[in-house]
Each structure stands twice: as structure tokens, then as C-alpha cells.
Transmembrane protein (Didymodactylos carnosus), 274 residues
Amino acid sequence: MGKFFLFLLLVIIISFTNSQCCHHQQEFDKTNKILQQKILTFLATLQPGVCSNIILNKTQTNLFSPNLIGRFLPQGTFNASIQAFEYLYGIFCDIEGLLQRSNTVQSTELRQITFDQNKYICGLEIILNLAPNNLSLTCFAFVAFDRDNMICGYDAQVRNNGLTFNDPPETNVPLIEEVCQAVQEICEGSNQQYSSLEVCINFMTNQIPFGTYDQGDQNSVVCRTIHIKLASISPDIHCRHVGKTGGGACTNKTSQSYYQDDNFMKCAHKRNEA
Ligand SMILES: *[C@@H]1O[C@H](CO)[C@@H](O)[C@H](O)[C@H]1NC(C)=O
Ligand SMILES: *[C@@H]1O[C@H](CO)[C@@H](O)[C@H](O)[C@H]1NC(C)=O
Ligand SMILES: *[C@@H]1O[C@H](CO)[C@@H](O)[C@H](O)[C@H]1NC(C)=O
Ligand SMILES: *[C@@H]1O[C@H](CO)[C@@H](O)[C@H](O)[C@H]1NC(C)=O
């Protein structure tokens, strides 16, 4: 009799620990499937024609937390939700009626995806294929999700940004002219930055370095070429970034400043928490 109860107890203990293990594993797998689907849906929204409808608010996505923050280095840090959102769609997407992009996403490939054991965080390697020059561009990213599986933070880095996008120096003069024409057109009224096209060209040519795409968020012309694309979507936010002060975005930063506000994953939901 005693032996029987001991046996029964053993069976109960084993099946209990088993069910704990497998329940956790099942939860883990189930959540990861949802997170992976979010990432795939996000990548699908980068396609031409789809991305522009999202940035123009014609299509709603169920992907982002209203508290989204992120950074995409070496291009920029976006600590306000609207900026973090715009960046994802504003740079490599052709938007009707707005400044033409020099590179646009044609297709995307999710090379790697891994999942954090304790939080709703995944690690990604994504390859974007960009038109018109058939460029491959790799982005390494960590993405955080909130309890509702909405993307709430991203911390991304591009491989060889400078080598990929730096143009030969002889194109600097025409590029500055192009940027300044766009600045004067887009940043008007209360968003005006330069009193004339000439003042803008003179500032960009003589007052700041041209810069490189390896340091896209410094006080340079290159940074302003990025932000004028965003200014064409939201002049109120981005016109000051293309102006003389750089408005905090196109401002010199030290290598160490990136460690001061680097917790873009803090919004991640903890697994096994209600
Ligand atoms: C899209 O909607 C957001 C939030 O309502 C708003 O801040 C933004 O200005 C809108 N963008 C455009 C291009 O209308
Ligand atoms: C584009 O680049 C990819 C990868 O480098 C290559 O496999 C493909 O053939 C290229 N396509 C064209 C149209 O050149
Ligand atoms: C991010 O926020 C901090 C403080 O909230 C601010 O000092 C900084 O300029 C912001 N960075 C950008 C790029 O807007
Ligand atoms: C920003 O840094 C560059 C060097 O990368 C330097 O030439 C420039 O003078 C600096 N600008 C300001 C406003 O500090």
C-alpha cells in the first residue's frame, strides 16, 4: 500500500513538472510565432505602394505601440513616437508628391530571427534590396514588443552605411543645391530656416562639413539630406533639423553619448507576467 502511494506521488510529481516545462515551452513558441508574424508583416509593409499609404495614414497598421521609440544608427535616434515611426517608412519609400528618394526598398529578406528567453524581444538580421541600383543593405536590429505584441522599441545598426551610400566628392555641389532647393520649398513660413537659397547653399558649403553616411546624425550636409526627406512628410518636426542649428538631430555627438540613452528595449513585456 505504502509503495503504491509512493509510486502515485512520483507519477504526480513527474507529470506536474512535465506539464510545467511543456506549458512554458508552448507559451514561448506561441508568443514567438506571433512576434515573428509581426516582423514579417512589418517587412511586407515596406514594399513600394504599401509604405507610402502607411506614412500618409491611408492604411492603418496594427504593428506599433503609440509609445514607439527607436534608433537606426548611423542615421539617427528617434525618441518621439511619430519620428520613430516616420523613420521606418520615410527614408526608403517613394511617396507621391514628395521629394524623390534616391534608394527605395524593392524587397526584403528576414535572414535571422532569434527570441529572448525572458522578454518579448527578438534579434533580427534583415536584408533590404534597394532600387534602382540593386543594392543589398543589411540591418541588424533588436525589436521590443509590449504586452499586446505591439512593436514599442527598436535598436538597429546598418552594415557599411558609408561604403554603400557615400557618393564621389564631385557630386557634393549639385547635391547641396538640390537639398537647399528642397529646404526652401518645404520649410516655409514658421518652418523657414534660411532667408534665401544662396544663404542655404553658402551655409552647407562653407559652414559645415559635407560628412559621410557613416555619421549620418552629426552636424553635416549628409545628415540634412536625410532629414529633408523626413521634412517633406512632417515639416513641423524636421525643418529645424535641416536648419543651421541642426535642431538636436543634425548636431555633433560624441561616441560616448550613445550610451547615455540606449535602453530602447525597456518597454519589452516580461514573459510569464500577466
Ligand atoms: C498621421 O497620423 C499621425 C497621428 O495621428 C499624425 O501625427 C501625423 O501627422 C499624420 N501624418 C500625416 C502625413 O498626415
Ligand atoms: C541583384 O543583386 C542580387 C544580390 O547581389 C543578385 O543575386 C541579383 O542577380 C541582382 N539582380 C539584378 C537584376 O541585377
Ligand atoms: C532625445 O531626448 C532627449 C531628452 O529627452 C533630448 O535631449 C535629445 O535631444 C533627444 N534626441 C533627439 C535626437 O531628438
Ligand atoms: C562638428 O564636427 C565636425 C567634425 O566632424 C567639425 O568640422 C565641426 O566644426 C563640428 N561642428 C560644430 C558645430 O561643433
User: Anything to note?
Assistant: Residues 77, 79, 248-249 surround 2-acetamido-2-deoxy-beta-D-glucopyranose (ligand 3) (CB under 6 Å). Residues 7 and 13 are 10 Å apart (CA to CA). Residues 2-44 form the longest helix (43 residues). The radius of gyration is 23 Å.
